[in-house]
Design a protein that fits this description.
Shape: globular
Number of helices: 3
Strand order of the largest sheet: 4-5-7-6
Number of domains: 1
Largest sheet: 4 strands, antiparallel
Order of helices and strands: EEEEEHEEHH
Number of strands: 7
Structural class: alpha+beta
């Protein structure tokens, strides 16, 4: 699936997984071609709902635009402050993440006990 970004001329893809630990929070990694580039999310070791994640706006000033322009999710209205950094909480659209990476999606939902709605 092509994603729009002004980062480079490389093909961009996403990998969906969960952070290790009790919370199993959503982790979304961005790949350029086949190489890992960055993680769009941060793990604040806080229990949040499936398909929610805190976004790394401290290191990635373009990440909010990337998520919204590609219709991956939306701002949930909450933030968490850690030292000098404030991280916005985003809700991600499960259907969009499924399209990104069906295999990774299935592994993630099994880990968080989430059932995908089908039509």
């Amino acid at each position: 699936m092509p994603y729009y970004t002004n980062l480079t001329d490389y093909a961009v893809s996403l990998k969906i997984c969960s952070y290790k630990g009790k919370s199993h929070n959503l982790c979304i990694q961005l790949y350029l071609d086949t190489q890992p580039y960055c993680s769009l999310t941060v793990n604040l070791n806080e229990s949040i709902l499936p398909f929610q994640a805190f976004i790394d706006t401290y290191n990635l000033d373009w990440v909010v635009d990337f998520i919204t322009e590609n219709e991956l999710g939306y701002y949930a209205g909450n933030t968490r402050k850690v030292k000098r950094c404030e991280y916005p909480l985003f809700c991600f659209y499960p259907e969009r993440l499924y399209v990104c990476s069906p295999v990774d999606y299935d592994i993630y939902v099994r880990g968080v006990n989430y059932e995908r709605k089908t039509d």
